[in-house]
Amino acid sequence: METNSHGPSRDEALHALAGPSADRARLAEGIRVPWSLLAGFGAVAAWWVGAAGGTAPGEDYDRPAVGGLALAVALVIIYLIQRETGVRFASMGWQAGMAVTGVVAGCLVLFSVSLGLVAFGLHWAVIATTVLAFGLTTWLTGVAYRSAARDLRHA
Amino acid sequence: MLKAHFDDVIHAPLRLRICGLLRPVDRLDFAVLRTALEVSDATLSKHLRTLAEAGYLVSDKMASAERGDARRVMWLSLSGSGRAALDGYLQALRDIAGTL
After folding, report:
1. In a domain, A117, yes or no
2. Are B28 and B76 in contact (CB under 8 A)?
3. Is B17 part of a structural domain of the chain?
4. Residue B64 lies in a domain
5. A134 contact partners, CB below 8 Å, separation of at least 6
6. Which domain range does residue A132 map to?
7. In terms of CB atoms within 10 Å, which of A98, A155, B13, B20 comes out highest?
8. Tens of pLDDT along A104-146?
């Protein structure tokens, strides 16, 4: 590999170092949150939480079998988001990690609440937890995506 | 330990900007990179070819269902040697500029 033995001056070096930061800021600004696809995550979460409505909590409880399929659909949505936006993040950042943790924790709580409602015979009330799962997941995945895009500026 | 060194392939301003954009991501679509850099397809392609020939760039083409013609989505990413060369180059610039 050829090397430049002289190298740039201090001003040229400062100018060159500023270039990538400005480009990253422009890239981050150009990234639009793909809400329609993020709503797909919300739909998957709603599907999983809603599956609690079809169970029979107690001795005859059978775990709903949608978990693996929901995970597969989520992976397809991730692929579609990358294709739609043209960006595949190397790292989402800690704020996005917290948001995703919030999605998992929120859905687990809502699933447990749904089982409780079914145990009390309130099957119809699972609609509320299902809608909540959709809204919470869509919102938090949007927060995670925005955070990951914002982190590009400081990468 | 990061070794500071100048690299003539990365030294060209646009190639430095390309590498700078690809460094923090896993990969970028050609169109996204072109828009962020505000350059023409031909100019970007020329510099990408230089980076690829130096072994600093990896490209991966895939079919696009949205496009009726034969065009494909082109994913771009820095190779391991590309990341090392960029990091060394940026370190050399920081040494000259006297920044961290």
Report:
1. yes
2. yes
3. yes
4. yes
5. A39, A42, A43, A45, A46
6. 10-154
7. B20
8. 999 999 999 999 999 888 989 999 999 999 999 999 999 999 9
Residue B89's domain is classified under what CATH number?
1.10.10.10
User: In terms of CA atoms, which chain A residue is nearest residue B16?
Assistant: A20
Is the confidence at residue B4, as pLDDT, over 80?
A: no
CB A113 within 8 A of CB A129: yes
Any A CB within 8 A of B3 CB: no
Averaged pLDDT for residues B74-90: 93
Considering only the beta carbons, identify the residue of B29, B73, B96 that sits closest to A13.
Answer: B96
Helices (H), chain A: 10-30, 35-50, 67-85, 94-119, 126-151
B11 touches chain A (CB under 8 A): yes
Answer yes or no: is B30 within a domain.
yes
**Structural domain tally of chain B?**
1
Q: What pLDDT is attached to residue B3? A: 77
Question: Which of A5, A15, A37, A88 is the best mutation test for B, with the most CBs of B within 10 A?
Answer: A88
* Residue recorded with tokens 């919030």: A102
Is A134 inside any structural domain?
Answer: yes
Asked if the ipTM is above 0.85, the reply is no
DSSP string covering B30-62, please? HHHHHHHHT--HHHHHHHHHHHHHTT-EEEEEE
Residue A38 to residue A40: CA distance in whole angstroms: 5
In a domain, A59, yes or no: yes
Q: Is residue A92 part of a domain?
A: yes
A27:B54 CB<8 A: no
Q: Could you give the angle at the alpha carbon of A61 between the alpha carbons of A58 and A65, nearest 5°?
A: 155
Q: Is B29 within the bounds of a domain?
A: yes
| Domains: count for chain A | 1
Task: Note down the domain range covering B16.
Answer: 8-94
